[in-house]
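Researcher: Here's a chain I'd like modeled. Treat it as a single chain, no partners, no ligands.
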Amino acid sequence: MAKKKKKKRRKSKIKKLKRRRKLGKRKVKKVRKSKIKKLKRRRKLGKRKVKKVRKTKNLKSQELIFKVPKKWSKSAYVNKSQYEKKYKLSIKDNENFWKKEGKRINWIRPYTKIKDIKYSKTEVRIKWYYDGTLNASANCIDRHLKDKKNKTAIIWVGDDPKDSKQISYEELHKNVCKTANGLKELGIKKGDRVTIYLTMIPELAYIMLACARIGAIHSIIFGGFSPDSIAGRINDCKSDYIVTADEGVRGGKIIP
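Model: Modeled as a single isolated chain. Structure tokens:
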């Protein structure tokens, strides 16, 4: 009886061992299969990356380089050697360089101090020509009226490229002055904060330059912002006035 029990135990042990071996083989097979799948995935991803890199390289090689005609380069304000000379001077003698360059624009009260700059963990201070006074609008428009009044100041292209304008300095001056007078009639004065929320139309430039002309502070908001983003910018600016339109055109669609 004892011998039979021993045989049964041995047989059960052998069966268990066989089962374990079979299970072990299955596990090994599963692990191998998963590893193979992972390797294949990596190889595929690698190939994709290589393809992307090759595509970008091909795109770079296909880029067109337009050489500057000799007539254009001759009429340019500066050539390569002149630019490099100026750049070296701006590094070597920075203050005197900008003292001279600042005289290229018109000043109401000429500056005597060039810059006051500080970069530190506790304080950041950036001041240029800070004891001088100028008008940005007059520098953008008025100083060009003597000899460039009929030249193009702004090339505007509408949502439909067929709808475009070439605005001369004389026309720009006329429209900006009109706009400035209109803002004054609304009660806008020097130091007031004006938020401009318009689409890309010439009137946007007129209002911006008109604000600078009368000394009002302007803040321009991009036409594609959400209502919350617009409200946040208006509140941060603490605007006294908002200049906007009933609707605009974007991508051929009328947007209210």
